């Protein structure tokens, strides 16, 4: 029986966390954290000078010049988005699907979230025409949209938005008076960085875009929460930063000094960090491509992953087999695949998709083995897909989807 109130089965309003790296922590980062562990205090609200300077250098190397008085740090991107939403006021527009943590931050403040369909070629940002239509409809119904949140390198779809789509969407948003927040958590995890063009909206319209980055995307473990935001170099950007600092101060949302030291070290991008990041991205790209092949071969649908440590799978074509197994919505699909695969398989409803849509996000980190030794072996191996632990995981994934394909063919009605 299909549930009509999904909140009655699991915490569907919240989570899941960002896809985990699934790798041992870099030794140099552990050393920095250990050296700073004697400092029991937190950073000042908004971050200390060393962390802010490191963030400025990070963005400047990516063509986004930044000064310390235009940057803020917080213990994770959710705290930053909560502060931004509180500072800007009004309702929030997001793409469908979108990162699982965006909407709860907005709803916590009692604001409305409006999901807008994405274009065919990518996720992470709304179709520009659908955005204009939705903004005007919301205003006609008494709403007050003021903020658009997008991600040009996306969770959950693992796609990278083409520059022309970014241009059209951001120009449409700014034309309607929306401030744009660009979540660039995954920008440093492009699977083919030399063949993929990533355009930050802040490069287009720097006076209208705030950029935020959660360091758990590329640089730090999830358990070391740290994120940074870069504000427009305008008077309004300065006022927005001041209001965000007020909110963070009220929340007591400060980065612990040891984590801030590790974050500053990572954002400085020394050789040890860049070499690890390059190796980790290469590993996850290979595993994601293999996983993509496995699910596509079964008849399921998924865009080819271009960034991150995940892929987003639509099992709609296998719905007949799933229905026969008692799986009729995304929550039931999440339960079924999590048990079948022994790995997280959060349903698309957690990312703003319809409960009835049979979609899940799969993580590549869960396919690297079950111990630090196995995962470290994956990182150092020239042929990680041939390692026993990876082969076992990919075989299990492939067989689970192949079984669904075979069942779907048996249950397919005669023509």
From TrEMBL:
Any Pfam family hit: Aminotran_1_2
Cofactors (names): pyridoxal 5'-phosphate
GO molecular function, one term: pyridoxal phosphate binding
Keyword field: Aminopeptidase, Aminotransferase, Hydrolase, Protease, Pyridoxal phosphate, Transferase
Domain Aminotransferase class I/classII large: 44-282
Superkingdom of source: Bacteria
SUPFAM superfamilies per record: PLP-dependent transferases
GO biological process: amino acid metabolic process
InterPro entries reported in the protein's UniProt record: Aminotransferase_I/II_large, AspAT/PAT-like, PyrdxlP-dep_Trfase, PyrdxlP-dep_Trfase_major, PyrdxlP-dep_Trfase_small
The family this protein is said to belong to: Belongs to the class-I pyridoxal-phosphate-dependent aminotransferase family.
Name of the protein: Aminopeptidase
């Amino acid at each position: 029986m299909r549930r009509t109130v999904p909140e009655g089965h699991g915490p569907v309003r919240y989570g899941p966390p960002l896809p985990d790296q699934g790798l041992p922590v870099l030794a140099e980062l552990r050393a920095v954290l250990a050296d700073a562990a004697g400092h029991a205090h937190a950073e000042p609200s908004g971050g200390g000078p060393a962390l802010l300077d490191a963030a400025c250098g990070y963005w400047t190397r990516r063509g986004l010049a930044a000064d310390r008085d235009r940057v803020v740090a917080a213990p994770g991107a959710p705290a930053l988005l909560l502060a931004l939403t509180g500072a800007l006021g009004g309702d929030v527009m997001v793409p469908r699907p979108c990162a699982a943590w965006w909407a709860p931050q907005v709803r916590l403040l009692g604001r409305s979230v409006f999901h807008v369909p994405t274009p065919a070629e990518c996720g992470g940002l709304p179709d520009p025409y659908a955005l204009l239509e939705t903004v005007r409809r919301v205003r006609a119904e008494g709403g007050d949209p003021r903020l658009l949140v997008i991600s040009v390198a996306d969770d959950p779809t693992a796609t990278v938005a083409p520059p022309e789509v970014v241009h059209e969407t951001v120009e449409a948003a700014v034309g309607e008076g929306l401030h744009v927040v660009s979540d660039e958590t995954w920008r440093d995890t492009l699977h083919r960085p030399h063949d993929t063009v990533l355009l930050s909206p802040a490069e287009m319209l720097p006076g209208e875009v705030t950029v935020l980055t959660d360091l758990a995307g590329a640089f730090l473990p999830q358990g070391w929460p740290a994120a940074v935001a870069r504000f427009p170099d305008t008077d309004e950007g300065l006022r927005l930063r001041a209001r965000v600092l007020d909110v963070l101060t009220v929340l007591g949302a400060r980065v612990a000094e040891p984590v801030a030291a590790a974050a500053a070290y990572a954002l400085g991008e020394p050789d040890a960090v860049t070499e690890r990041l390059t190796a980790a991205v290469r590993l996850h790209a290979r595993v994601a491509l293999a996983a993509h092949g496995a699910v596509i071969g079964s008849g399921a649908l998924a865009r080819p992953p271009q960034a991150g440590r995940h892929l987003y799978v639509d099992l709609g074509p296998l719905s007949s087999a799933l229905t026969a197994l008692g799986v009729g919505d995304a929550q039931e699909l999440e339960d079924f695949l999590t048990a079948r695969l022994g790995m997280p398989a959060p349903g698309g409803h957690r990312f703003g998709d319809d409960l009835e849509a049979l979609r899940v996000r799969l993580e590549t980190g869960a396919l690297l083995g079950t111990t630090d030794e196995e995962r470290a072996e994956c990182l150092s191996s020239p042929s990680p897909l041939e390692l026993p632990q990876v082969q076992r995981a990919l075989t299990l994934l492939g067989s689970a989807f192949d079984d669904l394909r075979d069942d779907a063919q048996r249950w397919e009605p005669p023509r």
